[in-house]
Amino acid sequence: MAPLGIPDDDRRSTRNEQERAFLVGLDVRSRSRKASGTVTAQAQAARDAASSKSPDAAETGVGLPAPSIKSSTKPIIPEFDAEESLAELRTLAASAGAKIVGEILQRRDRFDPATLIGAGKLEEVAGAAASVDADLLLFDHDLSPSQQRNIEKIVERRVIDRTQLILDIFARHARTREGQLQVELAQLHYMLPRLGGRGIEMSQLGGGIGTRGPGETQLETDRRKIYRRIRHVEQQLENVRRIRAQQRQRRESAPVATVALVGYTNAGKSTLFNALTEAGVLSSPKMFATLDPTIRAVTLPSKRKVLLSDTVGFIRNLPHTLVSAFRATLEEVQRASLILHVSDASSRLSAEQDAQVEIVLKELEVEKKPRLRVMNKVDLLDEEVAAGLIAGSARRDATTLYVSAVEGTGLDKLLTRIDAMIEEDPISRVHLRVPQTEGKMLALLEACARIYSRKYQDGAVVLEVEAPESMMRRVREWVIRDRVSS
Fold first, then answer.
1. Positive or negative, the Cα torsion across 35, 36, 42, 44?
2. Which of 70, 287, 376, 460 is the most buried (most CB within 10 A)?
3. Is the residue at 208 inside a domain?
């Protein structure tokens, strides 16, 4: 696959050489005005979502400045500033395999409708990019098709916006056929409005001799081909969705709950998934290292089993086409009994990142599902601070737990809390009198139930056990006294 969404013939002469990228950031001072459009609306939605968090989030103060007395009723949510946004773009570019050779941050009062950053600044960027022999410009903003064309004419280099960069990272990391189809669908929807004006081969036929008569323009032909491909990909994804629904139906026929991991990209979801399941899923500091969903069984302290699902990470201003394309994968989140919202406890912007996740969860219509917040990476915090946070989240009704997936800190408490929140296959505590001749059943109880006491009387084993309902149905004939139901 060509790097950064560019055709193969545009690669650098040496295949293994990294593409040289020049980053362009934009800080618009009048973001609060209506002229800022969708970006402001999303930022405001994020702040509102984070402000309406559970009291647990406000109590911890991780990622939040110390609230003043006057504003103690509503936590202050730090926003991504222009420098932090550019730093995130830097990480995205590295995940795409680019070599950063320069960057510039433009501060303006408003967006320029033609070139986003203004013609004068664009000339300066063109000179800076030429001086470092950059192959392409990466803009930390979404560009309209006309803006992208105008910028390319001036800088005479390939121009890629934030959405196209994210799409390329997804294309690089998709391993399964389903993931590749989902990425292709998003790329096709992104490509459609950008067909016009991309060279004479895609422009409409002009007037004059030799251009009259019936026929279809190249632009219309290209659009028709893309629409046909979109329909084909959507049909294949529908087949995937049907197969996934059948698999889910078979799973749901047994009383096994599904727990879905969600969170901002690079919050440590895959590392936590591996720590809980020993699955060996790729965990990487690169963004969007996990695209293809993975499901593994986990045994809880009650001996019940649940299915843990690792999902794609979310990001600020996640392209809507990606959310739509990955809906088949994200159905695992929609059908989950419990959502584990994994956050980076070491990040100053954890509250803002959580708020961006809330936006996607709301779009998936799962914001009201039972949820447990898992603050990961406490090993990166001060030891005393981390110890206090872990101790403070130890109570049984805590809605936020602090863990370190790398060091295994707090994972036992996490499994215990998951056990308490899962309603499927409820737990009962009973006394049993099982004949010693029932060796197979005694071994099954040892494996699938929590045994509190064991006595041998008259050729039988008297047990006090706690076991899930699915197990109780198999030993019902040997129950001698119900003790506790939970």
1. negative
2. 376
3. no
